[in-house]
Amino acid sequence: MPRPCTLLVALFLAFAASSVHAQSIRQQMTAEEFAAAGLDKLSAAELAALDRWLQRQVEEETSVVAEQAREQGRQQAHAESAANTGAPPREARRETFQSSIVGEFNGFGRGQRYTLENGQVWEQTDAARLDGVNKVNPAVTMYPGAFGAWFLRIDGYNTRARVRRVN
């Protein structure tokens, strides 16, 4: 996707989120839809709580999509730059690799940081959980995902955590 299109998508999403923010769920639905969903049975306080929850969901989804659009734009710009200089594309250098976490590992959790034996520090960005695991220097597999994402998996377990490199 060309860079101007990426920016256009991000602007559209920001506008859509702001318009949803300005409207309550009652304003977004027809009277028939509102009644069919049973929302007419909710109190004003319950409807307000539902509106706040819906707004949080829209904001989270919008920020994820906007970040993906920004990353795609960065990748496109880098690919264009690499094409002009003869350097290999950025994606070609994103390969799965093996390492180990230095020290104790006690499971996954959003915001936790994992230091690999090569000195890289990765922070978990999703809500993946792997409770009840107590390992010292566990072997890990790091592999790339779509839109610049990276995933960390402890060898011997199927659960993976989305991570971003912080160092």
Please provide a written account of the structure.
The protein has helices spanning 3-22, 25-28, 31-36, 44-85, and strands at 97-100, 104-105, 113-115, 121-124, 135-136, 139-144, 150-154, 160-165. The protein has a 6-stranded antiparallel β-sheet, with no helix packed on it. A two-stranded antiparallel ribbon has the order 2-5. A hairpin with a 5-residue loop joins strand 3 and strand 4 (121-124). The chain folds into 2 domains: 3-85; 94-165, no CATH class. The chain is α+β, with helices and mostly antiparallel strands and 167 residues long. It has 4 helices and 8 strands, in the order ααααββββββββ.
Q: Portion of residues in helices?
A: 40-55%
Q: What's the domain count?
A: 2
Sequence stretches where pLDDT stays below 50 over 5 or more residues: 87-92
Shape summary = flat
Sheet/helix structural class:
alpha+beta
Annotation field: number of helices: 4
Q: Spell out the helices and strands N to C.
A: HHHHEEEEEEEE
Largest sheet, in brief, is: 6 strands, antiparallel
| Total number of beta strands | 8
Strand content: 15-25%
Mean pLDDT rating: 82
Identify the strand order in the major beta sheet: 1-6-7-8-4-3
Q: Using only CA atoms, what is the Rg?
A: 21 Å
Distance between the termini: 29 Å
